Amino acid sequence: xxxxxxxxxxxxxDISFRYxxxxxxxxxxxxxxxxxxxxxxxxxxxxxxxxxVKNIEDMLDNWKVxxxxxxxxxxxxxxxxx
Length: 82
What we know:
Structural class: alpha+beta
Order of helices and strands: HEEEEHEEHE
Largest sheet: 5 strands, antiparallel
Shape: globular
Number of strands: 7
Strand order of the largest sheet: 4-3-2-1-7
Distance between the termini: 13 Å
Helix content: 25-40%
Strand content: 25-35%
Radius of gyration: 11 Å
């Protein structure tokens, strides 16, 4: 999946995906992205901008999954039920 494809998909859908044996989620809030790993009680929220697309881009560049930025992992993600 390309970065643009992911942004378009995340803009209109909540996302569940697997990476390296763990399952993660990305939910849309009010102009925000709420991200985390299932089974943990900690969310990461990206809502610095008034534009949800900019928040998705911020999440792609700065949210770390298993020590790597999400943007670096797009081709390796296994999407669940989307």
